[in-house]
Specification:
- Strands 6-7-8-3-9-10 form a six-stranded mixed beta sheet, with helices on both faces. The protein has a four-stranded antiparallel beta sheet with strand order 2-1-4-5, with helices on one face.
- The chain has seven helices and ten strands.
- By secondary structure, the chain is of the alpha/beta class.
- The longest helix is centred in the C-terminal third of the chain and has 16 residues.
- The chain has a single domain, classed as 3-Layer(aba) Sandwich (Rossmann fold), CATH 3.40.50.
- α3 packs across α4, α3 runs parallel beside α5 and α4 packs across α5.
- β1 and β2 form a beta hairpin.
- The chain starts with 5 loop residues before the first strand and ends with a strand.
- The structure holds adenosine-5'-diphosphate (ADP) and magnesium ion.
- The site of magnesium ion has 2 residues, from α1.
């Protein structure tokens, strides 16, 4: 069997409302992603992009189909096991940065490693390495509110990298940034991609999507295009 970072087959997601009405959100999505790919997912608002990202990130479960993440069938695991798989496999970057406001930058980056059971010395060493990589080594003792939006997103990217994940999932990472800062953040993603990190990025902006090499277009919960970026 061939190895894929992501192998989704016939993935479905529906919600059943309190009225008993079932609304399909994702309809039989097939998606495979190989190591080192940079995939941009685009689609209109409400087309199911975030729903798909939550499934990819194992933050939510599909109502149908099969999903192998890094070779593991996600459906076979309980929440605790899934959390462990998620922590060692995926780094998340969100539109809203999601930094802890009462923690310094260095603590924000090192914290996920605490949950991964790394020693204090190892946590600091790795956090400093990734802080330098995103160009904010001089800001280690700042608090998130003392940084610009673009700098906060760099911190969030360093935090995602710190666990040395196989895959980065980024949902609208430039959604709260101006166009100049968006470009800087996307250049950082492009640099990470050229180092071989696998990236799946959701955006509704063409300029942002173009940093990816492969384009997946969603419409009404279905993949309507999956191929080279155009
Ligand atoms: N918990 C939920 N219950 C019911 N419907 C939901 C829920 N979450 C999302 N949806 C619906 O799923 C559709 C897709 O949402 P989403 O994945 O967030 O789209 P996108 O990220 O592409 O804008 C939307 O119509 C949304 O209203
Ligand atoms: Mg969304």
């Amino acid at each position: 069997m061939t190895y894929h970072v992501i192998a989704m087959e016939g993935i479905e997601k529906h919600y059943t409302l309190s009225t008993g009405v079932t609304t399909p959100i994702l309809k039989s999505v097939d998606l495979t992603v190989e190591p080192g790919e940079f995939v941009s997912i685009m689609g209109p608002s409400g087309s199911g992009k975030s729903t798909l990202m939550n499934l990819l990130g194992t933050l939510d479960k599909a109502t149908g189909g099969t999903y192998l993440l890094d070779g593991d069938n996600v459906g076979d695991y309980d929440d605790d096991a899934l959390a462990r798989i998620r922590n060692r496999t995926i780094g998340f970057v969100f539109q809203g940065f999601n930094l802890l406001s009462r923690r310094t930058i260095i603590d924000n980056i090192a914290l996920p490693l605490f949950y991964a059971g790394e020693t204090h010395a190892e946590r600091l060493k790795r956090a400093e390495h990734y802080l330098d990589m995103v160009g904010l080594g001089t800001h280690r003792n700042y608090y998130p509110a003392q940084l610009s939006g673009g700098q906060q997103q760099r911190i969030a990217i360093a935090r995602a990298l710190c666990g040395e994940p196989k895959l980065i999932l980024a949902d609208e990472p430039t959604g709260n940034l101006d166009s100049k800062t968006s470009k800087e953040i996307m250049e950082l993603f492009a640099a990470l991609s050229s180092e071989g990190i696998t990236i799946i990025l959701v955006t509704h902006e063409q300029d942002v999507a173009r940093y990816g090499k492969r384009l997946v277009q969603l419409k009404d919960g279905e993949v309507i295009y999956d191929g080279p970026m155009y």
